[in-house]
Amino acid sequence: MPYWYYDKKDLLNTPSFRDGILNEAENRYRKEGARFIIDTGSKMDLGYNTVATGVVYFHRFYMFHSFRTFPRYITACCCLFLAGKVEETPKKCKDIIKVAKSLLTEQKFGIFGEDPKEEVMTLERILLQTIKFDLQVEHPYGYLLKYAKCLKGDKAKLQKMVQMAWTFVNDSLCTTLCLQWEPEVIAVALMFLAGKLSKFDVVDWNGRIPKHNAWWDMFVEDITMELLEDICHQVLDLYSPQTQQTGSDSPPNQPPAKQPKNEKKPSVTPPTSASPIAVVSKPVLTPIKNGADIKIEPPKVDMRFSYPAYPPLYPPMYNAPPPAIPAPRLPIPPGPPIIPYSEPPPANRFPPVNVPPPNYYAGMPARPLPPRGPIPPGPPPPRPYYPPP
């Protein structure tokens, strides 16, 4: 099976970078594509595993192809369509395209062309060949719940830490962490970050042995503090305020229109959806009843985080034009006239030959007939009939 983890120097020398796209622009395209998959999956009520699988397909695809060659929104729809089939939550291609059309502007949706379904279905074959048909993907969610059940401490703080770590895992889909480290390492690092922010110090855990210096040594060996901090900083960078970058929505960038010198630039406040990730001040927490045993379950976290609401999709509105009346069929013109055979039929080209059939028994001697025996007697004569007196 292919190895899907890369060094940072490989992430800086991608096909998009060799195609003239800066690394900052490529990271922005990756964040926008991942956000689009999360928004579409949340609007279609897809599970977190399906959404995460689609995002991983998206990141792996652009390690082999450029954003100039394949537009990110078509690729995102294709990745979500394939992930739905792999995770056994399939959705129709036309439904995904319908949701994508409601989330995108007309200019962005114009890259889908005249037949969006054909674009997605064609790209699916390219996606399968690119990821080498390696469809099974593991995510940090399962490891997060598994590791949390082994920790000891205040149950309320533990639940708060798990909720916060779950949110960080959702946000990490907008980074390239899935291309750098295994899901076990990501789960440990984000639990470490959530523990620091929620002030939950893990003092004891189940299965502890003397050689374990920290709780994560029981799950992942030889993990350093530098590695944990590097993963945490990559996730925290998503929450830092970012300046709105100029340029078009899809490469190649179009030159901006020149503005008159005397005209003042209007002050435009960027929408909340302009940043790759909505700033979350504090993860959503679920209160726990007093005295109840803690039960670690996948928290109900909105996959769209704090993105603006979109217009409702259902009931669907079908604005298809009425079918056109076919034009009447013209009569078939008659063909050329049939020319009769002008020459007379040929005479007896092959005259009969009066040749007697061969006698295959001419050279064989005649065999004498076997002697006949006596003639058997015939039936007896009928009895005479005497009528009654």
TrEMBL record:
InterPro entries the record matches:
Cyclin-like_dom, Cyclin-like_sf, Cyclin/Ssn8, Cyclin_N
Say if the entry is tagged with keyword Nucleus: yes
Note the CDD domains from the entry.
CYCLIN_CCNK_rpt1 (cd20530), CYCLIN_CCNK_rpt2 (cd20531)
| Residue runs in coiled coils | none
One matching Pfam family is: Cyclin_N
The Pro residues compositionally biased stretches are 367-389
Which Gene Ontology BP annotations are present? Answer: cell division; regulation of transcription by RNA polymerase II
Q: Which GO terms describe its molecular function?
A: cyclin-dependent protein serine/threonine kinase regulator activity
Transcription among the record's keywords?
yes
Q: Where in the cell is it found?
A: Nucleus
Assign the protein's first listed, main location to one coarse class.
Answer: nucleus
Superkingdom is Eukaryota
Which intervals hold domain Cyclin-like?
35-129, 142-237
* Homology family: Belongs to the cyclin family.
Q: What is this protein called?
A: Cyclin-K
